[in-house]
């Protein structure tokens, strides 16, 4: 997963993966991405 993503995006994807695993899923869905964004707490999506 070493694409041209920023460090923050890589961290959010990592958080999303952890949330997916915590919830017993073997895929990252939109719900996991949302939880990853919330967990990051410092991004434009949260400010909106």
Structure description:
By secondary structure, the chain is an all-alpha fold. It has one domain. The protein contains three helices and no strands. It has helices at 7-22, 30-40, 44-47. Helix 1 (7-22) packs across helix 2 (30-40).
Distance between the termini: 27 Å
Largest sheet: none
Counted up, domains total 1
SSE run: HHH
Helix content: 55-70%
Write the topology of this structure.
Layout: H1 7-22, H2 30-40, H3 44-47
Notable traits:
48 residues, mainly alpha, 3 helices, 65% helix, 0% strand, globular
Outline:
The protein has 48 residues and is mostly helical. It has helices spanning 7-22, 30-40, 44-47.
């Amino acid at each position: 997963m070493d694409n041209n993503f920023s460090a923050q995006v890589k961290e959010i994807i990592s958080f999303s993966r952890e949330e997916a695993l915590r919830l017993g899923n073997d895929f990252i869905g939109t719900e996991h991405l949302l939880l990853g964004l919330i967990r990051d707490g410092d991004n434009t999506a949260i400010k909106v």
